[in-house]
Design a protein that fits this description.
The protein is an alpha+beta fold and about 180 residues long. It is built from 4 helices and 4 strands.
Length: about 180
């Protein structure tokens, strides 16, 4: 009898895991309907209006949210308003004896609320999101450091947008049944 290879074992393990998950009623959040049309989460996400978020990091977050919620479709009726309070803090981690900071950990924070556009302005969901990144500032020229900061800020906005979008999709998926 020939021993099973690593790939074969991995395939068997993956198959067993998928079978056990399918048995408990697991369904993907963004799953389309049986007819192939967008599922309830995707349809509801497309009806969210993202309010303005101040400052450059906020603009990046708003753009990232709009891309995830609407894709290329900017039209359609808006039934919900998403308000986000977004800020980024920095903390010096690696500090030299002369108090020069050589590495900065940036933490992005977002508090958000989804509100229906009904007369009662019903709050549908609220939440928080947090993400971490770092910037190496040791021996960095000014413009290189500025570019690095912009790239890290954009990555933080993308990560926060992913967290908010996934949370909203799970809320809509649960509401759909």
């Amino acid at each position: 009898m020939r021993p099973l290879g690593r790939r074969r074992l991995l395939g068997i393990a993956t198959g067993l895991a998928l079978t056990s998950v399918a048995g408990c009623g697991f369904q993907p959040v963004y799953m389309p309907t049986a007819s192939g049309s967008p599922g309830p989460a995707v349809r509801e996400l497309a009806t969210i209006h993202v309010a303005l978020i101040p400052d450059r990091p906020g603009q990046l977050l708003r753009q990232a949210l709009q891309q995830r919620l609407h894709g290329t479709d900017e039209g359609g009726e808006r039934r919900y308003d998403l308000g986000v309070f977004f800020w980024i803090t920095g903390e010096g981690i690696a500090i030299l004896p002369d108090n020069t900071n050589t590495f900065t950990r940036l933490t992005a924070h977002a508090n958000w609320a989804l509100v229906a556009r009904d007369t009662a302005r019903t709050t549908i969901a609220t939440g928080t999101a947090r993400s971490y990144e770092g910037i190496d500032t040791f021996d960095t020229q000014y413009f290189a450091g500025d570019l690095s900061n912009e790239q890290v800020t954009a990555r933080l906005a993308q990560q926060i947008a992913d967290q908010i979008t996934l949370r909203l999709a799970t809320v809509f998926r649960a509401r759909a049944g």
